[in-house]
2995_t:CDS:1 (Diversispora eburnea), 321 residues
Amino acid sequence: MVYFTIIFVSFVIAASFTGPLVFVFFTLIYPVLYLANVYFRRKRLNSAQPWSFNEKVILITGASSGIGKSLAHLCVKNGANVIICARRDEMLSNVAEECRKINDSVKVLKVKCDIANESEVSQMFEIIKTTFDRLDCIILNAGVSMGEQFEDTDYSIIKKIMDINYFGSTNVTHKALPLLKNNKKSRILVVNSIIGIIPIPLRTGYAASKFALRGFFESLQSELWKDEIFITMAYPGSVRTEINQNRLGSNPRELDLSDAVSSEECARILIEGISRGDKEILFTNRDKLIRLIEGVYPELLAYFAYAKAKKHVDLDRNKNQ
Ligand SMILES: NC(=O)c1ccc[n+]([C@@H]2O[C@H](COP(=O)([O-])OP(=O)(O)OC[C@H]3O[C@@H](n4cnc5c(N)ncnc54)[C@H](OP(=O)(O)O)[C@@H]3O)[C@@H](O)[C@H]2O)c1
Ligand SMILES: *[C@@H]1O[C@H](CO)[C@@H](O)[C@H](O)[C@H]1NC(C)=O
Ligand SMILES: *[C@@H]1O[C@H](CO)[C@@H](O)[C@H](O)[C@H]1NC(C)=O
Ligand SMILES: *[C@@H]1O[C@H](CO)[C@@H](O)[C@H](O)[C@H]1NC(C)=O
């Protein structure tokens, strides 16, 4: 009821931005578009079945902490063999140990690998080929963030974020595709972010990398449709992880994680989405609403981003006084 009211009020407000003709047209055909969407969603989900985690081989990037670690735990619990990769070797060993404790009848392969380093990624695929010679799913989760205004940001950070989040993930995909194509109904999960839909201030380089991922994988999905490879794009909001500690930049402002979901809960939702073969995963009704309004009435949401930016700039000014 609350959301219905919000939708209604936003449409009325939005009508004054877009002009009444667009508004009336959209409102009239909205139910038809909605039903068509339901039809195509069903079609996709039907062709994505049957598929289960049991005895599959899954590569998870960035599995040393946070969401990736929780995903590794859940994959093995569901009977999948996993290859886990990240740069911090010791933390990765701990995760591998935890996975073996959760399920001792699956294989857990840990590979120390910086996905932004092409030769390390190549080496990892050599190891995957000799150990399994098979991949049913890749989870592109490794990522870094930032938290400062662009004018204060060292430009190398913008490049570094792109190297890891975008070039790293797409390079892994390039090398994984021949293996993924050997099995029917293989999966690719991309851990994007709600910031890949609505960019908020202090995240220029991060938002760019997440938008790039979306463009890349939407295009790739149309190429891979004939091979029945299902790409799921997930847009989590705040998740309680180590992302704050791992932020790049000289003085990154911390994310407020007070109303964040746990990484376990996040991983559970992602695992269900992979299993079904969802096109995309939005975590809350608020996020779904944002997705809808952003597409139809872009000015509306942009205004909130400006307001938020203004608040941050004021905060920075106070801090410097
Ligand atoms: N936390 C949130 O609120 C949130 C919200 C939306 C989306 N996300 C996305 O979720 C993903 C996971 O983040 P998280 O929140 O779980 O943060 P996290 O705890 O910092 O985990 C990030 C993981 O990525 C790995 N990683 C970073 N750079 C890497 C590289 N060059 N090569 C290989 N692995 C690398 C890290 O391991 P090493 O440092 O050991 O390499 C770590 O395991 C990211 O893509 C992030 O953008 C997070
Ligand atoms: C462990 O993995 C096997 C498949 O190798 C699976 O059958 C089983 O359900 C998994 N789960 C647990 C908790 O053992
Ligand atoms: C990705 O692969 C290309 C070609 O193999 C390489 O030139 C580039 O450096 C790689 N980038 C990253 C970040 O791994
Ligand atoms: C990439 O990894 C290799 C092997 O670990 C290392 O020798 C090389 O210095 C790395 N390259 C970069 C640019 O970090």
Q: What stands out?
A: The domain at 54-320 is CATH 3.40.50.720 (Rossmann fold).
